[in-house]
Amino acid sequence: MKTELPAEVAASRALWLEQKHADYRKKKLRRKTQVLIVRSSILILFFVLWEAGARLGWIDELLFSYPTKVFRQIWDDMVSGSLWPHLGMTVGETVVGFILGTLLGTLLAVIIWWSPFLSAVLDPYMVVFNSMPKVALGPIFIVMFGAGFTAIVVTTLSITVIITTLVVYNSFCSVDPNLVKVVRSFGASRVQEFNKVILPASFPTVVSTLKVNVGMSWVGVIVGEFLVAKSGLGYLIIYGFQVFNFTLVMSSLLIIAAVATAMYQLVVYVEKLLLSRR
Amino acid sequence: MLPVVELKEITHAYLGDREASLAIEDFNLSVGQGEFVSLVGPSGCGKTTLLSIIAGLLRPSRGEVLLSGRSAAGPSPEVGYMLQQDYLFPWRSIQDNALLGLELTGRLDEESRSKTLQLLADMGLAGKELAFPAQLSGGMRQRVALVRTLATDPGLLLLDEPFSALDYQIKLQLEDLVSETLMRRGTTAILVTHDLSEAIAVSSRVILLQRNPGRIRRIFQVPEAIRSTPPLYARDLPGFAELFHEVWKEMELAGREGV
């Protein structure tokens, strides 16, 4: 049985709860602000120290350049338009490598899940290929596909595909066998088993490999460009290094950091979108 | 009338890298229409193996399973299987979970759909159709699992300790619900359980197994009076305690000898 509280007791209790909640939210907001302040201070301090260090001669300006010069360089390249083809090339390679790598890796995972025999056969090859530094294959890719877009995308794929396959295949295998038992007891076929249980159960893992693959794709593309390219941000870095223009190197690095972060955030957003419907 | 399920000289061996072990040997059993049979016994006596064989999930090394006189090969929609836990799919709503069996067997239409939704309502789950499993309590989830199993209208229901993971009170409620539902539908059932009082309360026959290898040790007939009373009240009937002790003593012996 529930006894009615006198009105004033109920009101004071509500007030008290309200106050507690307000305090809690205020504390949380304050914390958030603190984090934000310290976070931006670090960034600003970094650039200020860099600038000051170069101008006051603490670090070699020729090697490390300095922020105003680097930003000037970026701005000039943007205005003159000479940046865009390089940026477009690199982003294009990364996006293609990323999408193809994820698709091929997942597809391969499906195939070896489908056939345990094939999985057993391929296992040592996958281990070898996964452990070896794929970048070492670069020269072979260049000979096979010519110095250019294809070779760079293939270098990227060599980095992303196998790891995607391993992660996704593992998540296929770690689906609770009892969930599989449920559908099998209804006489489900292997296709149904995959569509109704395995894929939906591992979907979050598949989506989260996307995030890993963005980073991997950047590694593949930049390394690929180091090796062969005649354009792209990786090429700019190598070129800047060879002609001893470290302002160019630094500005390329900053652009890569910015674009790679943007791409990563985009994938995080897509992940949220895909998983929120569940 | 043909028995709903008949096991003929079932022998099953588990083959591993190091050894082959005999789980069940020469097992014969016949369960008639509307019967409720319990399998009890010390752990490792092959109870769950037997259920998997009847469900068609496991092919026996030797012997034959007949479902209504026909030899069974592989899972059949005739047989429903309920597991120890609900194993609802967390990414599916309650109604989509309940409709899974119909979806898989290609029998999902307006009629079967509304029948299933009605069944959910009958089990006290009205209003939860669009909720997700994580939002439901353990007892509710197990009821959804029961609906999922019953939705395809199986003539034979296999229950593998379906109440063991639940709180005691919920477990008693669910025993009543299952026993009443099955009786009303005339569904034949085989229950595997560790709980002797549960076995006696819900079933018409209690089959005690022994291990190494798994085989029938003794069969206890449950008196009509206990059989026809809802499980919760059956426990208070005269004769229940005596039968319980008889089964208990025999199981103790089985456990000691089987080691």
TrEMBL record, chain B:
The keyword tRNA-binding does not apply. It comes from the Bacteria. Pfam families: ABC_tran. The keyword DNA-binding does not apply. CDD domains: ABC_NrtD_SsuB_transporters (cd03293). Gene3D superfamilies: P-loop containing nucleotide triphosphate hydrolases (3.40.50.300). Residues 5-236 form the ABC transporter domain. Keywords: ATP-binding, Nucleotide-binding, Transport. InterPro entries: AAA+_ATPase, ABC_transporter-like_ATP-bd, ABC_transporter-like_CS, ABC_transporter_ATP-bind, P-loop_NTPase. GO terms for molecular function: ATP binding. This is ATP-binding cassette domain-containing protein. It comes from Paenibacillus phytohabitans.
